Each structure stands twice: as structure tokens, then as C-alpha cells.
User: Fold these one by one.
Assistant:
Number 1:
Amino acid sequence: MTRDPSSDSRISAEDIRRRKGGVPIVCLTAYTYPVARLLDPHVDLLLVGDSVAMVLHGHATTLGASLEMMIAHGQAVMRGSAKACVVVDMPAGSYEASPAQAVAAAKRIVEETGCQAVKLEGGVDMASQIAAIVAEGIPVMGHIGLQPQSVEKDGGYKIKGRTEDNIAALFSDAEAVEEAGAFAVVIEGTMEPVAAKLTHHISIPTVGIGASAECDGQILVIDDMVGMTVDRVPKFVKEYANLRGAITDAAARYAAEVRSRAFPGPDHVFTAASGKDKT
Ligand code: KIV
């Protein structure tokens, strides 16, 4: 991709906006320093998603995320990455009340993490929040379709775009997010043909999750993608590794070796003969 040479070495939100219709944008969530370091060379965008509340903190929904939680994980991901565009999710309760509330929270996230952009859920209903944050010079990524922060209001994780009324609402949401100045928009849990049509309908990149291969980019939750999810794995997830199995196997072998005193063996202890004075 072509990058603006005057910018720092990171991919900017503007770089992402220019990828509309081009080579698909590779996005993953990241929440920690070591994982950000591993992912950074391979992705265009790292999202510090509010899914962190479920994935790392064990909450039942993303409503368990707080501004402090998002900032702490945003700082870790910024420390662990050098190239990716880092986007931090605005947690539920930090932006919905008013544009002024949204601007205050977005400024705090950007000032305390140094991230490139924030993301918030909502379409027509959140357009004034998006416009107000963008007016402050902070790039915003939208999030339409299935919105996990609305799971209690919606009565579960329901796929969008099944009825004519809902399809019309999705088009209004996509247009509202685009007009409000978002640089890109996540489309989650939406019928494939609808997600494809939305992608061709708007001028900003769409990033799909449970959406369509025709989206301008794709995102998955990192723990889902590497097989770390211990509960139900959603249909739209492809597991590219099985860390669940690797960790279970490692823990079982370690437990057996501790119990049989096979660990630590001669290679993992310090003796006069080993001559090592460093760990
Ligand atoms: O919080 C998150 O991980 C997200 C992605 C699923 C897009 O919003």
C-alpha cells in the first residue's frame, strides 16, 4: 500500500480510508503487549475491542468493559506495535448520552493511549457523536449491524439484514456513519448479500465480521482465531490454530512431570557443574 511519507511509521486512519475497494484490509483484535508484538507485522489494523471484557476478563457481555480497562489495554497494544493502525473501542456508557460525553471520552482514550482512532457502535442514532469526535480531529470507526453493546436490548446476538425493514435501517445506518465522517465501518453479524451491497453502496471501507468476503477488510477476535475460546465458537470464526489444545496438553504434561519429579531436570537447575550464573 502507499503510505504518506510525512506521517510517522504507523498506518493512519486516512491510509485505511484510502484502501476502499483495494487489497483487503487485514484487521484483528489485540489486547496485550505480547500478542500485539506477534500480530503487528501481519496486520493493517489492531482493534483493542471491548470484547476484551469477555475474552480476558470473563464478563458475560462487552457491557463489562470500562474506560479505564480500554485505556490500559490500549496502552499495552500501543507499546507492543509499531506499524499497525491502532483503534480503541469506546465502551458502553462512555458516549451514548451526548456528543459532549463522547468527545470527552474519545479525547481521554487518544491522549492516554496515543492510539490512531476510536470505534463506537451505532448508526443513525450515534451520527452526532461521530461527527462531534471527528470535528475534534479524532478519527472514528463506525460499527453497524449486530452491535454487541445492545445485546440486552436486542434480546440476544441476532443476525441482521433478514427483513426488508431491517435492511432499510442498515442502509440508513451505513449512510449516517459515512456522512458523519467515519473513516471506516465494521459490519458485524449481517446477512452476506446485504453486507456485500452495503460495501458497494458507501464510499468508506467496510470491515466485516460474520458479514461478507466482499467487505473491504475482515476482522476476527484474536482468541477465537487462534483457538483459545473455551466456550461456544461462533459460526463465522475460522480457527487458524488450536492454542486451547496446545495449552491443555502443556499443562497436563507439566503437571505429570512435577508430580513424578521429572521436572525440573538437570537442564533447569543450577549446580556447580552447570557453571551458569544467569537465569
Ligand atoms: O470488540 C470487538 O472485538 C469488536 C469486533 C468484534 C469488531 O468490536
Number 2:
Amino acid sequence: MTHALPILNHQPRDPRVPPPAPAEARRAGRLHDAHGRVIRDLRLSVTDRCNYRCVYCMDPDHRYMPKRDLLTVDEYLAVARGARDLGIDKIRITGGEPTLYPDLDVLLEGLGALGFEDVALTSNGSLIDEAMARRWSERGLRRLTLSLDSVRDERVNEITRTNATPAGVIRAITAARAAGLDPIKVNAVVMRGRNDDEIADFADFARTHAIDMRLIEWMPLDSGRTWDREVVVTATEMLAAIERRHALVPVDRTDPHATALNFAFADGAPGRIGIIASVTRAFCGACSRLRVTADGKVRPCLFSHEEWDLKPLLRRSGTEPDVAAFIADAMWTKQAGHGIGADGFEPPERGMSAIGG
Ligand code: SAM
Ligand code: SF4
């Protein structure tokens, strides 16, 4: 007797599409991950291009993604609408260097109309002038974070591999202040043997320019894969170096999702210090972030090996609920922690400039 083979009625799963999340992923009007964390903060990268090649970020021979793979401004806005539907109320535009993105004003205009509580942007500051900062502010940008890894001209040249100097960032600070952007933060990645002798100078920079200076531990996210644990200057070392020159007082951590340990100057001088100890004091348990790359990949974690491709859905003109559902499913796969330092840790395939910092 012969038996008919059963007809299997399931299609192989598309590896670019996340498995469906349970209904509890969306509760109380908020998006949650499988570890109980609320996701409320979207980092949207709008380009992987950059006019710098910072030594801790981008290899000199780094290759960009083909232009056709990058999302259009309407697609970025569709991502933002989907995220907004899930209760995500903070958005940061980043890259690569987002000021190189030609549709930045259009994007900010669109985001302004979506009613995000907080719209911020991270930039190396090289191209920012007063007119630009004012336009952004009128479109709803609230906060600006800049990057400056040395207060010395020749060091900025070496680190960025360009002829940039601190003067560009100082100009951007002035422009941002005139446009009412507040707070203004300045990031520095501190590396042993490169700029760790300037830690207290960064504190002086914060005082002189009345900005929040944020000192960051170098993470294994450079595209050249040159990261070396020995080169990481720890939060403890950074604090000690500042306190040799200025007494600090901790600032109340009102935001439980804040990534920085924040300090004010004990003598009441303007400016603040934030230490971002991503390597030695991981804050993964409080992480509220979702990342979408310039080519439309949803990355639940900076260190994800898995990323979920939203672009086909966007290019099929997926509806807002479809986009929201895709994001919710993707975020349910968010890993508990980055695992730097754990046995078998492998950095992600993409570097920081291609993920969005
Ligand atoms: N180009 C802009 C800039 O430099 O501000 C925005 C993108 S950049 C990737 C965002 C932030 O990531 C910068 O402040 C940069 O210093 C930081 N960053 C880049 N690579 C890093 C790494 N390997 N470890 C820690 N921070 C890094
Ligand atoms: Fe460009 Fe920013 Fe990376 Fe420097 S840190 S190479 S400015 S993306």
C-alpha cells in the first residue's frame, strides 16, 4: 500500500524578517523587549558617509554602502512613524556624518510634525553654521551632540585624519547656542597613548564653553577591527584624572535610561562631565534603544549580530501598522547585554559609522 506524502504547508522563514513577538511586547502603550526593558529611544542613521576617518571608528580604506541601498527621506519618515506608533518618543539622527545627508532639513521637518518629545542629532560639527542650526531648531531639533577628541590642533588632525581643528567644534557650539539648542554635549573617545593626557583639559573645555563634556570608553566597533582592551581608558581612570584638577559632585540621575555617569564641578563652574563607561560598567540593563541603519536594518543592540531588514517592507509600501509590527517583532529579539569581555565575544560585522553611533 502506498501513502501519499503529507503536504507541508509552511514556507521557509525569511531570515531577514523577525519571528512574531507575543502581544506583551506592546503593553501600556509602550514597546517592551523580552527582558522587560521599555524601548523608547530610536537612533536613526541617515548616512554611512563621513568627511572624517576617526582612528577609533573608521578604517582609512573603509568602503561605503552602495547609494541605492540607502533609504529615502520618505522611508526614514515611515520608520519614524512606525516607531512613534509604538510609544517611542525620543529620536536621535546620526550616521556617518548626518550633516552630509542632503535631505536633513526635510527629515527634521517631517519628524517635527510627528510630535516626538525629543529630537536630537549627533555630528562632528565640521559643517555646522548658525543658519543651519537655526533652521534645524525651527524644525523641532532640541539637542545637539558634537564630537571632539582633542583640544590640540595637530591631535585633531591625527585622530580625524583630516585638517580639522577644535575651532570647528567651537564654532558649532556657538551656532547651536545662538539657535537655542540645549543641552549641547561634546563627546570624546579617550584612548590610552593617544589623548588620555588631555582628560583634565576636556574638563577645562567643559567649563570654558559651558557644555556637557562626555568622555567615552573606546568600544570594539571600529571598522578596521583594531580595538584593543589595553587601549581602553576606564571610567575610574578618567574620574581620577579629572579630580586631580577639579573636584566633582555627582548629579542626580533623574533619567533611569541615562548612559552617562554625570558630574558637576564642586566649585559651581559651568559645564558638566559625563562618563560613558560602556565597556567597564555596562548599562545594558537600562538600555531603551533601538537602532535603524541608513540601509534600513533594525538593530536591537549596538552589538547585535542579527539585524532585521525593514527595507523590503518599506519598498512594498508597507503600512504604518506593518512597520510598527516589524519593529516590535525585531525588538523582542534584543539581547540582554553586549558581552564585551565574555569568552567568545565577537564584535558586530558592521562598525560604528555603518550602524549609527
Ligand atoms: N559623525 C558623527 C560624530 O562623530 O559625532 C556622528 C556619528 S559617530 C559614529 C557618533 C559617536 O560615536 C561619536 O561621538 C563618536 O565619537 C562615537 N564613536 C565612534 N566610534 C566609537 C567607538 N569605537 N567607541 C566609542 N565611541 C565611538
Ligand atoms: Fe565620522 Fe563620526 Fe566615525 Fe568620526 S566618529 S569617522 S566623524 S562617523
